[in-house]
Amino acid sequence: MEDLYHHINGKRVSGGSDRFGTVFNPATGETQARVPLASKDEVEAAISGAAEAQPAWAATNPQRRARVMMEFVRLLNRDMDRLSEALSREHGKTLPDARGDVQRGLEVVEFCIGAPHLMKGEFTDSAGPGIDIYSMRQPLGVCGGITPFNFPAMIPMWMFAPAIVCGNAFVLKPSERDPSVPLMLADLLVEAGLPNGILQVVNGDREAVDALLHNGMVQSIGFVGSTPVASYVYATGCANGKRVQCFGGAKNHMIVMPDADMDQAADALVGAGYGAAGERCMAVSVAVPVGDGTADRLIERLVPRIETLKIGPYTAGEDMDFGPVVTAEAKQRILSLVDSGIAQGAELVVDGRDFSLQGYENGFFVGAHLFDHVTTDMDIYRQEIFGPVLSTVRARSYEEALGFAMNNEYGNGTAIFTRDGDTARDFTNRVNVGMVGVNVPIPVPLAYHTFGGWKKSAFGDLNQHGPDSIRFYTRTKTVTSRWPSGLKEGGEFHFKAMD
After folding, report:
1. What DSSP string runs through 345-376?
2. What is the pLDDT of residue 389?
3. What's the CA gap between 170 and 164, in Å, rounded?
4. pLDDT tens per residue across span 292-340
5. What confidence tens digit (pLDDT) does each residue in 266-290 have?
6. Per CATH, is 252-438 categorized as 3.40.309.10?
7. CB under 8 Å to 187, separation ≥6 — which residues?
């Protein structure tokens, strides 16, 4: 069994708290590593190290900071296979899915290479007699990030890359369920030339989270996870005077109109609903066909596709469709919700409860499930399942389908499949959801746009990556200056109107 570590001041540091978390191999159920859980004192020591290193980094030419990101991109490409394999081993994702995890983070790092331009301020010449006004974007100082298990490469890079390139130091608390890839990323940044202390990786649980939230040197906090925890982190961070962005749960609806290409819609639903075993905040978990005829045609196409999905460990080859869920507790919760759906009257069209993989009976595999005739009062509709379960809610009209998405408490992502431009345009304009796809099932924006939901899926005013990330990790300072010329006059004791 491997003993993991923290990454502090450019070095691998063993934990000193005598508390450890267990890192499983989700495919076999075996313990493959233990990870130290930091004490409050250890987190505060990491923050202090970051605070000491940050001023010199902030004073570094922005272009030189961007060059570190440029070299980091090269190293990410060099080590893509090694990172992906480590990610699959701890999370359970297929190798292609793991590569996608790393790649989407890498694309944000590429965006950050342009930070010298994005950080430029504004200038007004001769705003008044001999007066110039200009603004500067300056780093916050020490920033913190708390990231989830389901994207152990992408989401940490979404946070620390823009924070660091803006001149901040960053203290990352990754998920204790799959911490190896964030630690590997820290090693690569040191190799890329990042000064020691600018990225600290501290493994831990709630004690580490609270230490970040209550430490006065930490100026901002980023979080991705469940909505209850997001609400807690947001309230606590704001109460302590920090800038906070938190992203929570989701219940993403995909509306299927009668004129949609049913084969295209079915393929999209299978990929978006069951990819990564449904452990995505942008997974489509609710299909909303409009009209019984549409629903029947859609279900007819979904069933054979779902029944032939290939489920297995990442070591079985790249043609696997999805692997295990992350822990035994996650598996049990998913199956419990499936049972509740049956008990509450939903029709289980594809039943994956008896799925078992020979040789991997102790792994955390969950078979694919498809429900039909789901109603909005059922637990499988109201709760984020975070597993390979797709619920079909039949709508009698477009307006009713739109209402399902709009009335749901979450507002992360949604999609509509249609061939009608008027319907698509109306949907994109009216739906109160942060990310919308038109014939695109998982509408995750590219790195130069911003990622973020609405309603109980997000807390805070600025989104992740894209231009919002530069705004979040900097603060604006505005300078009004006058250089006297000619005869100097005496002091003035009132505001003088501009000529």
Report:
1. T-EEEE--TT---TT-TTS-----EEEES--T
2. 98
3. 7
4. 999 999 999 999 999 999 999 999 999 999 999 999 999 999 999 999 9
5. 999 999 999 999 999 999 999 999 9
6. yes
7. 7
281 is known as an active-site residue: yes
User: CATH for 2-248+457-479, among 3.30.750.24, 2.60.200.40, 3.40.605.10, 3.40.50.300?
Assistant: 3.40.605.10
Q: Note the residue count of the chain.
A: 499
Q: In the predicted model, what is the mean pLDDT of residues 236-250?
A: 97
Other C-beta atoms lying within 10 Å of the C-beta of residue 407: 9
Which one of 112, 143, 166, 281 is the catalytic residue? 281
Average pLDDT over residues 61-78: 98
What digits encode the pLDDT tens for the residues 37-55? 999 999 999 999 999 999 9
Which of 76-114 are b and which e, b meaning 16 or more Cβ less than 10 Å from the residue's Cβ? Answer: beebeeebbbbbbbbbbbbbbbbbbbbebbbbbbbbbbe
Domain positions in the chain: 2-248+457-479, 252-438
- Eight-state DSSP code of residue 166: T
